[in-house]
Structures are given as structure tokens and as C-alpha cells.
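Example record

One chain of 276 residues, shown exactly as stored in the release files.
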Amino acid sequence: MKWIKELFGVEKPIIGMIHLKALPGTPRYDESSGMSGILERAQHDFAALVEGGVDAVMFCNEDDRPYELRVGTEIAAAMARVVTECVNGRRIVYGVDVLWDPMAAISIAHATGAAFVREVFTGVYAGDLGLWNTNCGEVLRHKRRIGAKDLKLLYNVVPEFSEALQPRPIELVVRSTVFSSLADVVCVSGPMAGDEVPLAQLTAAKRVLTDTPVFANTGVRHETVREILSVADGAVVGTAFKEGRYTWNPISKENVSTFMEIVREVRSKGARRNAS
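Predicted C-alpha cells for this chain:
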């Protein structure tokens, strides 16, 4: 568990999401603004997150709806450009999430110097994407082949917009994911982006994973972050940081700053309890 503090510089890190506008070739791509429009929004959101005080950022092709299980080279190229131009030597921990292609995510992350990726690496699901299968063994071998062995993997074990074909209690899912699939972090999600993580599921996952971090992956808000961080080892935050708390809006620096004030308070109280 100590690698969390070594990587992020704090305990219970907050990862702020940069939801990219639709990329070239996808149904919602805006040809009139092109890559310049995508970069402008991403750079605005990146600055708001960093100046607001998050511990890390994660780049995601959130508006490439409907999502694919294997993305084209145009998506990988566009994301690599956005990550590179946004970070541009700034000292911030960052990661990559490609919906829903773990091979592409690992490749982009390795090429751009990212520290982690978040993906659905395990399981078989049915839902809005149709039948959704995974191949964790192939993905981890790809990671090793390209020399990305130090890249941390955040496993989303409750994929949004879908249901496992063979549902199991969350305790069994997270234990087997860590044991058989070598997860660095387990992420527990709500049913859709922006939906709150059921606290009972988060608590159950944390109860059985004493040596592997458990992150809340969706729906963490100003009103709930204290309770969530009383259980989770960190959180991924997107919608709560947006203007009007609407997923597709730009990020509000004020929303980030007020959220992180609460997080620092939680950490301070935890440090005092540990000291006593």
C-alpha cells in the first residue's frame, strides 16, 4: 500500500478527470473546431484541476460515444497528442483511460510517460455495448512486451452501462481480480458515469482487500467525499468538478478548490488519529 503515497505524494489521493471532447472519426466529433477545440478544452480543464489542487489527473475519451472495445489508430494518436501538449513537462502525476480499450490505454500511457491507466481488464458483460469480453492475460503480456512494467493498473470491476454475465458478490470479484489478474488498484463504480458508488459495495471490497488499494470510481461529490474517504483509499472525480456539476461542462476551478479543502480536512483528521 505504501506505493500510493510514494506515487501521489499523499494518502487517499484524488484523481481529477479530463473528459476529452469527441475525437476525430467518432459520431460527435466537431469538424469545425477540430483538434484545436479538443486541445483548448483539455488545456482549460487541466489547468483548473492542477490549480485547484488535485493529486493527479486522468485523460479519458469520455465523449467518444458510443464506445468501442477496440479503438482506431486515429483515437490513439489524438489522445497521445492531447496528453503530451497538456502535460508539457509540468510536474503532475497523470494517467490514461481509453473507453474501452486497455491495449490502447497502456500504449498511450507508456508513450506519453503516464504513471497509471484505468480500464476494465477482467470479466464478461452484457449491456449497451452488446457482449463485452476481456482478455487480461493478453493485455498484461502486451504491457510487459512494450517495457511498461512499472505502469500501475487501476481495475474497474463494476463497469458502467453493463451487467456481468455471471454476477458474483463484490467480495469474490475483488479477491479473484487481485489474485488471478494482478490488479494494483481496484475501482468500484456506480451504474453510470456520475452515479454514486454504493457505500455497501465499497465497504465490502475494502473489508477483504487489506493489501490492495480500493478507489471510489464514480459519483463522489462534495457532500459525500468525507464518508467515501472514511472507507476508500482514494477516489476518481469527474462530474463534481464540472460547472453546474454536469458531466459535459468544462471544469470549474472553484469546484475543485472547495472539494480539495474538504479532502485536506479529512486527511488532517486521519493524521491526528494515527498520531494519537
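Notes: The chain is about 40% helix and 15% strand.
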